[in-house]
Protein 1
Amino acid sequence: MDKEKKVFRKQGKPKWPGKRNLERKPPDEKPFRHDKKNVIEKGKQPAAEEYKLNRGLVQVYTGDGKGKSCTVIGLAVRAAGANLKTGFFQFFKKPFSCEIKVLREMKNIHFYSFASYYYDSEYITGDEIRKLQEDFRRIWEKTLAIISRNNYDVVILDEILIAVRDKLVAEKQILDLIEGRNRNSEIILSGRYLTEKLSAAADIITELKKVKHPFPEIRARKGIDF
């Protein structure tokens, strides 16, 4: 029997591939080396470098598709990673949306949540609409004051275009913010509504279009939709 085994191997016939052979990498594939060049040690971060935008643009994310807030959240994280001081103003979203916890802990992001109690105007009375307009007047004044004293590199106004649509803030007020900003500051607006003048003032406009969506059969899911 031992003799037969030796002959079998000498003839060069393949052995039945065991577990080790199946897991073996091709010879030209270099495995990832877990050395100091490839891994950032826990608790250590790359050295912070001073960085400023040479020119700030105006970006708009609009449309009836999902992903407007997701997009501007991603932009905020990227800006913070480049050590750009970012003011993130979120309007009308419930204060338990999961990104809030992360954004508030990030070093270069100042996060503010305003008018989280808001609901569609078609379901409320005229008196409630007037109260909401008065509340938003104070909210907008506070927003402008915060922006003015912080000299942000990036200003994100998430869902502010809904406020324009529902006449809680005037189109001119947004245009005045754009016109009066520091020229090195990026302004990012999001929401389902966009006027012609705001469109003309923007440098980048992205429209997210709803092609398919499972709502209302599948409701909003924590960690995915809020």
Note: The chain has eight helices and six strands.
Protein 2
Amino acid sequence: MVPTYWKDLIIGDIVIVQKDERIPADLVLISSEHKDGVAHLETSTLDGEKHLKPRTALHETLTSVQIELLPDQEIKTLKSSKKYVHSIQSIKVELEALVSVQQPQPSIYKFEGFVTLNPKQQDVIHEANKINPAPQAGSGETRTIPLTIKNFIFKGTKIRNVQWVAGIVVYTGPHTKIQMNGA
């Protein structure tokens, strides 16, 4: 795991965000600590609402990210020594996907796209080198799954009710929904 500033994120990066941290870019949720891939967002910075909004990872990507957290006692020791950065001990990501989303738009109620799991080599090249270098074709079956607002996590919101989420960056900088809404 490489700690990264939000300004250095690029579309296609996989990001791990822990509970109570601000989301650094607009993401498609691919996994969470919850076995069903559910996470709840606090969106008060975006829409002023205090109630939590549920989001769900794609069923097909739930197991693509595996995270082992540090034991509670070790976290307490690190926090007391002021050397605490995060509670993640190890991360394993196994995902070969091509994510295609609509052009950025300000509506916080709409989001459409699709993810192709195990894309064929020509599918990756066809995307005009958006992924560089192009991965080799996967061994699994190619499947395309639709994305909706229920899979979308807004930049600037906070994760609640789970220890971590994993997402793929789809919009950054001025193209995020919070920036397009002047927040």
Note: The two ends are 30 Å apart (CA to CA).
